[in-house]
Amino acid sequence: MHAFMTKLARIMATIGGLILTALILLTCVSVAGRSLNTLMHNDWIEARFGEAAQYILDLGVGPILGDYELVEAGIAFAIFAFLPLCQITGGHASVDIFTSKLPDRINRIISMVVEVIFAIVLIIIAWRLYEGMQSKMKYNETTYLLLMPVWWAYAASLVAAVIAAIIGVYMAGVRIMESLTGRIIITALPETDH
Q1: Is the C or the N end of the chain the one with fewer CB within 10 Å?
Q2: Which residue ranges make up each domain of the chain?
Q3: Whole-angstrom Cα distance, residue 11 to residue 167?
Q4: Nearest 5°: phi and psi at 193?
Q5: Is 53 in contact with 45 (CB distance < 8 Å)?
């Protein structure tokens, strides 16, 4: 079961990484286009390179239409796509100066409480995303420039949030069993040891 959950989390993180990379490229191209467009409208450039500047502008050089809308939707998905891997590897930020001095039993209880709270929060987030998506579908809300249905972004984020919630519940179950039995079922991965 743990191997399946870890593979699912890694797949989601990979998809999130690909989306994030595409958004970075989109932003770079859009900023470069916006800068080049501004440069070609410069009085000095127009005076000296009028026809060439106009030719470049006629090619459609400028910012990518709707870049902000695409980045907003894509970043939301990427964040939710990274959550499952962070959850299953114990990669969330922690300050364990105090807890490192506590007995193992107490640390297992703290870990269990944290995992249960994370699971509850992830379930609530997925539920609210679903409700938000339903609202956007009901009113046919679209983005301003691209006229893309807003619910599409909610749906993509919802898929990732549901997977994060499933993995959160799984990890909460693991930590509960560890707390009850006193044995370690899943250790933190070496690269995520804090």
Answers
A1: N
A2: 2-192
A3: 13
A4: -65, 130
A5: yes
pLDDT at 76 over 50: yes
Asked whether the beta carbons of 84 and 164 are under 8 A apart, the reply is yes
DSSP 189: P
The residues facing 142 across adjacent strands are 149
- 38: CB partners within 8 A, 6+ apart: none
59, two tokens: 């090619």
pLDDT at 184: 84
CA–CA separation, 175 and 108 (whole Å): 7
Residue 190 CB coordination number (10 Å): 7
**27: burial class by Cβ within 10 Å (0-12, 13-18, 19+)?**
middle
CA distances (Å), 118 to each of 45, 61, 155, 164, in order? 56, 46, 21, 10
Distance, CA of 70 to CA of 60 (rounded, Å): 19
pLDDT higher than threshold 50 for residue 120: yes
Nearest of 17, 10, 55, 15 to residue 36 by alpha carbon: 55
What SS3 class is residue 149?
strand
Among the listed residues 78, 82, 77, the one whose alpha carbon sits nearest the alpha carbon of residue 154 = 77
Q: Provide mean pLDDT across the span 49-76.
A: 92
